[in-house]
Amino acid sequence: MPLRLPDRLPAIELLKKENIFVMDESRAHSQMVRPLKIVVLNLMPLKITTETDLIRLLSNTPLQIEINFMKLKSHTPKNTPVEHMMMFYKDFDILKRQKWDGMIVTGAPIELLDFEDVEYWQEIMGIFDWARTHVTSTLYICWAAQASLYHFYGVPKHRLPKKMFGVFHQRVLVDHLPIFRGFDDEFMMPHSRHTEIHRADLEQVPELTILAESAESGVSMVMARNGREFFITGHLEYAPDTLDKEYRRDFGKRDDVEMPRNYYRDNDPQKGPLVTWRAHANLLFSNWINYYVYQETPYNINEIQ
């Protein structure tokens, strides 16, 4: 089954070119199906790119899924047209009246700020708290993972001596969980961040389970509340060329830019990326949708607690 997306969302035409089956709301309304309702709080600056990346992964399921996009009232994006935000995004004040089968909160390029110094910190803490009673399962990605771990469990973030930038081997630590069904013992995950969370801090919180980690990039996946919350420190959703675009954007303009590790063929940017994470990315998102959203959410969505 396809994803149900807002009419005229740019991702629709982009993904149709990749032979990914999506349909707009007008066609979806003709089908008598109770779709899973997923809300995405997109904090990334290039919103259309992030929308497309996430929709590409969410489409890899036989279930019909309705996607809605949330925006903050306390922050105005600078890199996305106002018309796009007005047409496809709704304020939290509107969306909070509903309950949701699943939620995704993305990263944001603000990790070097203390959490309390982020202009929308108060608003996003309210959204995190709301999700616990209005969403069956929530994926927190990169900065959102660090922010929610700090908010809920007091886990601090730590500044890295240099940017964690590249694609790194991750080791599965709890292989019997459904989130890892079909996974190999190791998988690859892209990372692009200046801060990290420490295993020692996580181990002080009994409610947290460390699911995967890397000798190079540290803890990459954490779970809480039996899968109602997942915290992912990297970017499995990234498209093949995302790290390349970031590297070429910053090279020569910043003194802390290094070539992304384990990314280019023969470590040569001229040869382009060697994609090593997409299969597990699709598997993780489909496992999340199937085992932690679809299998757990009530048919009457208003019964979510």
Automatic annotation (TrEMBL):
Substrate binds at K163, S192, R249. Its EC number is 2.3.1.31. It catalyses: L-homoserine + acetyl-CoA = O-acetyl-L-homoserine + CoA. The keyword Cytoplasm applies. It holds the Pfam family HTS. The record marks S192 as: Important for substrate specificity. The record marks E111 as: Important for acyl-CoA specificity. It is found in: Cytoplasm. InterPro entries: Class_I_gatase-like, HST_MetA, MetA_family. CDD domains: GATase1_HTS. Its main location: cytoplasm. Pathway: Amino-acid biosynthesis; L-methionine biosynthesis via de novo pathway; O-acetyl-L-homoserine from L-homoserine: step 1/1. It is an enzyme of class 2 (transferase). Gene3D superfamilies: 3.40.50.880. The active site is at C142, H235, E237. One of its GO terms (molecular function) is homoserine O-succinyltransferase activity. Keywords: Acyltransferase, Amino-acid biosynthesis, Cytoplasm, Methionine biosynthesis, Transferase. It comes from the Bacteria. Transfers an acetyl group from acetyl-CoA to L-homoserine, forming acetyl-L-homoserine. PANTHER family: HOMOSERINE O-SUCCINYLTRANSFERASE. Belongs to the MetA family. HAMAP family: MetA_acyltransf. This is Homoserine O-acetyltransferase. It comes from Hallella faecis.
